[in-house]
Amino acid sequence: MTHSRPNEFIPPPECPVFEPSWEEFADPFGFINKIRPIAENTGICKIRPPPGWQPPFACDVDRLHFTPRIQRLNELEAQTRVKLNFLDQIAKFWELQGCTLKIPHAERKTLDLYVLYKLVKEEGGFDVVCKERKWTQIALKMGFAPGKAVGSHLRAHYERILYPYYLFQTGNSQKPTLTNDTKDKEYKPHDLLQRQSVQPVETCTIARRAKRTKGRCFKSEPGEVCEKPNLRRRMGSYVAKPEPVKKIPIQVKEEPIEQQVEGEKSKVRAKVEQYICLVCEGGGDEDRLLLCDGCDDSYHTFCLIPPLHDVPKGDWRCPKCLAQECGKPPVAFGFEQASRDYTLRTFGDMADSFKSDYFNMPVHMVPTELVEKEFWRLVSTIEEDVTVEYGADIASKDFGSGFPVKNGTFKVSPEEEDYLSSGWNLNNMPVLDASVLTHVTADICGMKLPWLYVGMCFSSFCWHIEDHWSYSINYLHWGEPKTWYGAPGYAAEQLENVMKSLAPELFESQPDLLHQLVTIMNPNVLMEHGVPIYRTNQCAGEFVITFPRAYHSGFNQGFNFAEAVNFCTADWMPLGRQCVEHYRSLNRYCVFSHDEMTCNIATKADSLELELASAVQKDMCAMILEEKMLREKVYKLGVWHSHQVDYDLLPDEERQCAKCRTTCYLSAITCPCSPDQLVCLHHIEDLCSCPARSYTLNYKYTLAELKPLFQALTARAESYEDWASKVNKILKELRSLVVEAEKKSYPETDLLSHLRQVIQNADRCTSMAQQLLNGKRQTRYRSGGGKSQNQLTVEELRSFVNQLYDLPCTIRQAPFLKALLNRVEQFQQQSSDLLAEDMPGSSALQSLLDEGAGMDVELPQLAVLRQRLEQARWVEAVQEASDQPADLSLDCMRRLIDQGVGLTPHACVERTMARLQELLTVCEHWEEKAHNMLTARPRHSIETLEAAIQEVDSIPAYLPSCLQLKDCVNRAKEWIMEADALQAGGRIPGLAALSELVSRARSVPVMLEPLSRLESLISEVQAWKESAAKTFLLRNSSHSLLEVLCPRCENGPQKSKSKKAKDVSVPCKKVEVKLDSLFDVEKALSTSKDTVSAMATLSEVHQKELESLSMLRTSNESKFQSSPSCLAPTVCLCHTVPAGPMLQCELCRDAYHSGCVPGFKDIQIGLPWLCPLCKRSEKPPLDKVLPLLASLQRIRVRLPEGDALRYVIERTVRWQHKVQLVSPTQNPNGKVSLIFLNIVKLGTELEELLVEGLLMQVTLPELQQLYSSLLNRFSPSQHSLQSSEHDHQYHIAQDRSPPHRSPPHSKGQVREHPQLVY
Fold first, then answer.
1. Cα–Cα distance for residue pair 937/948, rounded to 1 Å
2. How many CA atoms lie within 13 A of 789 on its CB side?
3. Cα–Cα distance for residue pair 985/989, rounded to 1 Å
4. What's the distance, CA 1312 to chain centroid?
5. Closest Cα to residue 889, out of 956, 965, 968?
6. Taking a C-beta distance cutoff of 8 angstroms, is the pair 658, 677 a contact?
7. Across the chain, what does the average pLDDT equal?
8. What residue stretch is flagged as signal peptide (predicted)?
């Protein structure tokens, strides 16, 4: 395809380049105001600083990291993006029809389908072009050579590819098959998902076509299996549930009447057929019935217009789905963030590698002209897709500016300190006195705070104007050039109109496109349509300034680092107000409130420069007139309620107009129906539907309050204008005398020469006097530290005043300059007096310096005063630090010494430095000594450390190691006191308290004499616990020693009802300790004061154990009582029904299968048998347990296990005594039945003795004798329960009596007592 415009990029004309002198460079805004008449006609200009002005690069390179933007070059250019979007739509249209778009070729060039589509549409459409035979004309318009018969090829391509799409867009259902030529180039759609700033959903982008899976599950009814269908489905091979016929407005064939009758008959068959065509409502010809891959609707191939001859390849969509997919609105275009984070070094390596690989030569050898032409070629082609990355809008406050700043991390050398306060330092420029942004209170990133930009080859910034139409200044710190294009401010609307006319599709979907900084357009195209464009290459160390409302764009030639910020001067004020009105018409947010800034400036009218005061006075006049008119309009609408609001205190987002998004300041309208919403006075009709009388006018100032502010500005501005007019009038009269002499050809007499000299002197003196009286204090840069040539010395000022009084005319400023001279002389005298002191105060020096800085006269005393001020501040800082020794650390002393080393020598400074260094030496010595004492092995005694602390207390400084040493001594003393108190008076300490004390001692780096004794006690306790564990614990037991020795507390309900009732009846009783778990018991024993309280706790736990066991025995015995349900109970460890030989535990009364009990064959006949759950220990003989208690008493340490063991022994002794009192009669024969034990009747008292004996963890012969005597005393009575097949064939003795202590039965009742039954 041949482009309609030349492929070769023609560079636009160069913008002006200025090279200021040192005197001009000293006043940034003065110089910018001087070049403005020239530079604003081109929109941008370049400024080269004077030779030698090279600020150091202050950005923290190691800390700087950023995530760049991804830029695909051919998506940046507006017309190219339109073509890409069009091709994406065409590709989507055909892909939904099961076809792949291949872009055809014509004359061995790729055919521009978009241009072809637009030209045919402009000529009236396909039918008109064919009828009037205009295909040759279209070929010529597309740039093809005549006589090549290209027109017929264009017609064929249009009819095959574009005409169906055109018919679809106009509402017709044209669905032909797209046949592809093998020589055509297959089109791969751009991945729109990746190039959107906001990621759209899957259904909103064409790119999902390339990513979807081959197989999809189509809709199915519940219970059906979702199959993977063939994408080119014929109805004879796919079975699914039929759906009702859907009526859609679609163009269909006209069938004869007979066929309509047949259609009526086919409705009967539709109930049994699985799919029917939505056009003819017939289900026949299943091999020609297509199923939509989007909605599963079906169509005959011959019912579509025109008919399909073959089944489409790939997915196929019905007309309804096609309209739905292609009719979705486009997603807003924006840049995507890169997936990785870069440092400056890694980004530079990537950027240099990209450029050298692309141009196949070293980066520094690539000509800028070649890069520029290649850039505009890439952005204009759809065939090459080059992607670059751009680190833009990096906040300087996060990583530091490239310029040095005061109090920053970057330390400048003495010869570079002038750059800290330079007006061309972009951190200072927005807040200079002549910049109105100084009066914007918020720190706005990018406007008041600089932004950083890290570029690579081809990375670009698109056409845009600055926020609020402000100035911008860009400085390239280092790297390869940056190419700029700009248009003057007066051509802004023209540029916008041209871009909208050439790419209307983009602006239809995104009206604020130019505000998004995502679109460029070739400068040659803009120039062809009459837009003036200028260019420049910004090299390292150069500034580029853009003027108000000047559109600008550009790209980077390679890896570079730039910094930019905004500023606004007095001449911008009317443009700023005009911009706010423009934003209001676009419903665009403001960055700051223009009215608020104007009012802030007006409050400082007396200190404003005269030019700024004049500009603000005019702006405020327009503001007050507009506000007065709007308020009168509001009053006429019936708004009488008003309320004063301090909008300074509200954030911008809470005072934005709900309609136009303007930030309100002077006034706003609210309504009680929506208190969180407000509108400006321009949009009172858009607030809500309530009547205006319910509205409230919220105002910042009354009109009367604005009047004094305006009058102060007027007085300041008009005084200057009045004086200037008088001076001009006098000079005009003098000049008129010269002109009269020239007209009348008077001879060149001494009088005429003197008159000319007087006029020249008067002009020069007037200008200089006014400059002195204005008190301008711009930042000045002095070359080599010499005198600035625009400042007068004192002698020159004195001579100048004398010259004013010698003039033959009266200069009104002469008395004021005389007063200035007197102030200068008085300043010199005060300076001499102050410098004569040994070390004056810093406040007096600063006050005198401020006074001298306000005089625009060169004063030698200022340099000496500055030196003495630095010295005084340092001496005061040392004194202040010494007065607060708690804050005087080693680092503080070192920092003060480092600061004092660079000061000018002075006796007071030397004395202070000597004292400080001596103190630092002593502190370092004691810090090291204290550290060594804390880490010494073996540890020092308390006496040694206390002696060291006494010496340290006299040092007036903060010594952390010494303080730590002092704290360790205090902790050691406290520990010794606690250790002595623990064993004082024959007390027996608890193990928990002893262990905690020893643990604390190990963290105290002091030698503690009692520690070894306490550690040996703990070792003995641990050895005792191990011995006790070997005595009591079963092999591989899961129980702890304390758990075995203590009564069980977790095997049943916690309290009986009677016990609870008793507790409630005594409300004044102390709340009992919770004893529901072993942890609670161990805690109670550890915190008990003596053995008596420990025994009481264990007794309470034992009582709970008996109650819980009683309930457990009752529950288990009830399993074998006859019940109406005849359901077999679950028993044993396996929780199944009884079967075969069963064992019954003498303690819990539960039954166990003999096969489930480990060691069943080892059971001793005639001994009470306990189940695995009830037998928790080895139950050693009492003679093995008593020595354990005796050895523990010798150790003299209380521990929960020892208390529990003591309770076990006491409980055992009590039980033995009970057995002796209640001893059953032995059977004379002394023999007991071992296996066939019948149910025996036991008395309640004997049963309790037996249960309590079984609970004890000690083996006693009395228990065996009691059990044997009971077996011999009662004659066995065998009971067997024969169960049927339905009862699972089990045999077990059944208990017919309730457990002991059950209320319904008397105490003398007995119950059967089974053990083993077959």
1. 17
2. 8
3. 11
4. 77
5. 956
6. yes
7. 76
8. none
Q: What is the pLDDT, as a whole number, of residue 764?
A: 65
Closest CA to 283 of 272, 270, 302, 268: 270
Angle between helical axes of 960-982 and 991-1002 (0-180°, round to 10): 160
> How far apart (Å, rounded) are the C-alpha atoms in residues 954 and 81?
79
Half-sphere exposure of 696 (CA within 13 A, CB side): 15
Nearest-5° Cα angle at 1020, 1018 to 1021: 65
Query: Distance between CA 1200 and CA 1178 in Å, rounded?
Result: 20
C-alpha distance across the termini of the chain, in Å: 105
Give CA–CA dist 908/906, Å, rounded.
6
User: How far from chain centre, in Å, is Cα 802?
Assistant: 67
Q: Which of 191, 85, 87, 103 shows the shortest CA–CA distance to 503?
A: 85
Distance CA 202, CA 212 (A): 10
Give yes or no for residue 208 having a pLDDT over 50.
no
Is 104 within 8 Å of 157 (Cβ atoms)? yes
816 and 773 in contact (C-beta within 8 Å)? yes
Q: How far apart are CA 333 and CA 519, in angstroms?
A: 9
Amino acid at the residue 699? Y
- What residues pair up with 868 in beta bridges, in sequence order? none
Sequential DSSP letters for 412-462? PPGGGGGGGS-TTSTTTGGGSTT-GGGG--S--BTTTB-EEEEE-TT-EEE
**pLDDT tens column, 399-429:** 788 999 888 888 888 888 889 989 999 998 8
Residue type, 804: L
What six digits make up the tokens of 1004? 């105290």
Q: How far is CA 989 from CA 986, 1003, 1084, 1293, in A?
A: 9, 21, 15, 53
pLDDT digits (tens, 9 = 90+) for 967-989: 888 888 888 887 877 777 667 77
Asked whether residue 357 carries a pLDDT value surpassing 90, the answer given is yes
Contact (CB, 8 A) for 519 and 463: yes
Whole-model pTM?
0.50
**Residues 171, 1265: Cα–Cα separation, whole Å:** 109
pLDDT at 516: 61
Amino acid at residue number 207: A
**Which three-class secondary structure state does DSSP give residue 656?**
strand
Entry field: residues in the chain = 1318
Has residue 1314 got a pLDDT over 60?
no
With a cut of 90, say whether residue 353 has pLDDT above it: yes
Q: Are 313 and 98 in contact (CB under 8 A)?
A: yes
If we measure between CA atoms, which residue out of 194, 148, 561 comes closest to residue 347? 561
Of 872, 861, 797, 866, nearest to 831 (Cα)? Answer: 861
In angstroms, the CA 400 to CA 58 distance is 7
* HSE-up of residue 114 (Cα within 13 Å, Cβ side): 19
Give the mean model confidence (pLDDT) for residues 1272-1296.
Answer: 39
pLDDT given at position 45: 96
**Contact partners, residue 365, CB within 8 Å, separation at least 6:** none
The answer to whether 598 and 666 have CB atoms below 8 angstroms apart is no
Across the strands, what pairs with 1316?
1143
Sign of CA dihedral 173, 177, 181, 185: positive
Count CA atoms closer than 13 A to 749's CA, side-chain side. Answer: 9
Given the DSSP bridges, would you call strands 543-546 and 451-455 parallel, antiparallel or unpaired?
unpaired
Angle between helices 1078-1087 and 1091-1117 (to 10 degrees): 160
* 358 burial type by CB count under 10 A (0-12 exposed, 13-18 middle, 19+ buried): middle
Cα separation of 178 and 1254, whole Å? 96
Beta strands in 626-715 (DSSP E): 641-644, 667-671, 674-679, 696-699
Rounded to whole angstroms, the Cα distance separating 1118 from 1096 reads 33
Q: Which two tokens stand for residue 566?
A: 């905004």
The helix-helix angle for 750-774 and 814-835 (nearest 10°) equals 50
Query: How far apart are the C-alpha atoms of 1014 and 1199, rounded to whole Å?
Result: 15
Please give the Cα distance from 156 to 127 (Å, whole number). Answer: 13
